[in-house]
Amino acid sequence: MTSVAAPAPLPTVTLSADEARRLALRAQGLLGAPDRAAGVPGVLRRLGAVQLDTISVLARSHELVPYARLGAVPRERVEAAYWSRGRAFEYWSHAACVLPIEEWPLFAFRRRAYRERGHRWHRIADMESACRVVRDRLRADGPLTASELGGAKNGGVWWDWSETKIAVEWLLDTGEVVCTERRGWKRVYDLAERAVPAELLHDELDDAECVRRLVAQAGAALGVATRADLADYHRLKAARVDAVLPDTGLVPVAVEGWAKPAWADPAALESTPRGRHRTTLLSPFDSLIWDRPRTERMFGFTHRLEAYVPKPKRVHGYFAMPLLAGGRLVGRVDPGREGATLVARQVSMDGRAAVEPMARALWEAASWVGCSDVRVERCDDVELRRLLEGALRDG
């Protein structure tokens, strides 16, 4: 029998589209004074998940996320904030993400699901023997990369993993092993019993409680969201979200122009979002915009990562970064670096009002990554290009 979701409760609060957008910006730490005392760990706790990705243009995405909220935090300090003092771990959330260590118990449902399934992508003849070797090495030698454990690949394509790599990734999936940092973009593995604080090292929460807490966390991080938005944040099944929504404390609201029911964080509704809007370039993997349907609904902005699109078919460039200014997405730029020059390989802007914010964002990004010059390579609107180059010279 197919289960049917119960109807959403009637909302008691109606929000305009603009109010919803501002709630979301404040929830994501992009409206109002940044909490500099809390720093990068505070950003991570607030968002609940920061996505990792292999692409590095200006910087890697997990560095760009706190930069967008706090400004030019030194990159080495960002890495230290994530990985020192046992503050975080890497696991499967929206994708591969840095997660606050406090969320370890909340992913017990996913670890159990992997155990029940018996594998992720790869199978080997004697998984238990391979896992035993990995456990023994980590126990004896401490945190190690897959290469240090004996090699990550068999020599073929990138997914042609060695038995050691398959075993250690399986132990990570099921919770015996933790990725405690990235070193040269390689995962560093340690035993969970050593890396996770004792008070958190348990899988006591049942599946429903794990999902309930993750949905509540997503609601707080999003400010206001549809069921699909809440499910997408930690990649949860919609039926599971439906089952726990009434117990999350999230408040049913109606948002003008949204076709689907929505829920808001009650704390977000207690005060009107005020303060300074951040002007910044956003990683395409930033949690403000990683959900493309939500981004279009919230900002009227259609965005697509074109890194895997053949170059002749790209519209905005390899790693186009949207420009956030005045609480709206008003342009995008595909950046690159040539020595000490930040190159705006392709720029598009929504009119003259976006020129000054784009120039400011480019100079701030250039300074952050150690560039002393900015050059515009392509902007198809001749007049906007002229204005942008003038603003960059004046900046």
Automatic annotation (TrEMBL):
A Pfam family recorded for this sequence: AlkZ-like
InterPro entries associated with the record: AlkZ-like (IPR009351)
Taxonomy, superkingdom: Bacteria
Name under which the protein is recorded: YcaQ family DNA glycosylase
Source species of the chain: Streptomyces alkaliterrae
